[in-house]
Specification:
mainly alpha; 3 helices; about 85% helix; about 0% strand
Amino acid sequence: MSNQSDSGLAVLGAFVFGGLVGAAVALLTAPKTGKETREDLYRWTEGAAQKTRETVQTLAADTGEKVRTLAEDAGEKVRQVYGSAKDRFGRGEGEATDADLSASE
C-alpha cells in the first residue's frame, strides 16, 4: 500500500511541478514590460508560497493523526499480549510461546 501511495505522490508532484514550469514560462513570454512581469511573478510566488504552506500544514496534521492512530493500535495490541501473558503466568501455565503471542494479534 505504501508503494501505491508513494507513486501517487510522485505523479502528483510531477503534475504540480509541470504546472509551475508552464506558468513560469507563460509569465516570462507574455508581452508585458519587465516591471509588470516582475510584479506578476511576485504575486504568483506569494500565492504559491501560501498554498504550499497550507498544503504542508494539512499534510502534517493528517500524518500526525495517522501516527497517533497507529501508536494507539500498537499500544492496545501490546496491552492485550501483556494481559494474556500475565494471565497465563498468573495461573502457572508455564511459558508463553510464539504461537500464543501471534494468536492474540
